[in-house]
Amino acid sequence: MPCSPKRARKLLEAGRARVHRPHPFTIRLVDRRLEDSTLQPLALKLDPGSKATGLALVRVERTVDADTGEIGDPVLHLRFLMELVHRGQAIRNAMQRRTMLRRGRRGRKTRYRAPRFDNRTRPEGWLPPSLQHRIETTMTWVARLRRLAPIAELTQELVRFDMQAIQNPEISGLEYQRGELFGYEVKAYLLEKFHRTCQYCDATGVPVEVEHIVPKARGGSNRVSNLTLACRPCNEAKDARDVHEFLAHDPARLARVLARANAPLRDAAAVNTTRWALANALQATGLPLEFASGGRTRFNRARLGIAKSHALDAACVGVVADLKDLRLTTLQVKCNGRGSRSRTRLDSYGFPRGCLMREKSIKGFRTGDRVRADVPKGRKAGVHIGRVAVRRTGSFNIQTAAGVVQGISHKHCKVLMRGDGYSYHSIATPQGKREQGRALRAALSRPAMNGEVGRAI
Fold it and tell me: Which fold does the domain 163-264 belong to in CATH?
């Protein structure tokens, strides 16, 4: 059962618990059996995305009206926030490199070989590896969290992007345009595409509006390629002017706006393709599964004043009356893979340029292990903790939060956690930063007392 960091520290200091796993940080009680414990119901909420998936583990508190016996909407207490960063683009790039290598190898051989791709058949429900990876890694972490916590139910955001409406909102049929999804699909796509940022002044954290690059007064349309996001001051300043006229003083920004406007719909297509495959995989777990729309998630976030992030979006999925304990730290889990079976490295043209060593273990370490290096002296003296990249010479590189530290001897390294294909980083949630900023402003605005000059937080 998840507990607060303060309680975990007390249990470890008292010797009542021991560390079971460093990432995600898990302790195990040694003075109590599971049969003697009382667990509360937990729910795992998921917000699937193309590049990252948000996961939130919450304790569900349901209230019952004493007079009518009616069960009210649940109040959720956050217990764990996680952001799973996928590597679909890396898989796609790796497969392209493999294609270049094989194509070059076939071209260097003189013997003709008949094509055999027509003999290959794909099973029903087949997905490209870059999309299948998103489902498998998400289900891997659902299984891991189920082993670590008593999860009783699941909730998934089943968002659907209307690709035809995104491409052309002016499609014929008034009923189709002004149905339940009118306006939401295009706005949601633009928010994800432009990262909720004004494209004319790079302002973030402010209300943004849908803006026509070529104004409708000058013949512009409602096609998504003609839409962008702008804050209210920039939208009013641009008015009915053409974007070439409005950004004539900043050609670099003009080129960037036009390039982003014509960006492909790859991310929206990935979400549409994988949403039901992930839903079927979650149903196979046997746990109660609830589906929710993206509109409800955005409604809950706006109603409760929750900051935007993948993990907090996951917490807002489904029916939510209130959300408590918002100042949790989010664990960012990035998929790095376990290396490559190919020992050949290619240049930018697809020609072999080098070969990797056969041995994966060097001096007891492998690339991807999380290590602690205590360097006693020299320019790199100090403690370095991070992901290691091994070399045959025994001089390793360590990827820390501050950057890469090169040339660390294996003699100074100690394994903290064996590599499992992921890297882990703790990031503060936007909601926690917002509350800390409010506390800081309130403290600074408080008048000094008893000759006090100021207070530091």
Answer: DNA Binding (I), subunit A (1.10.30)
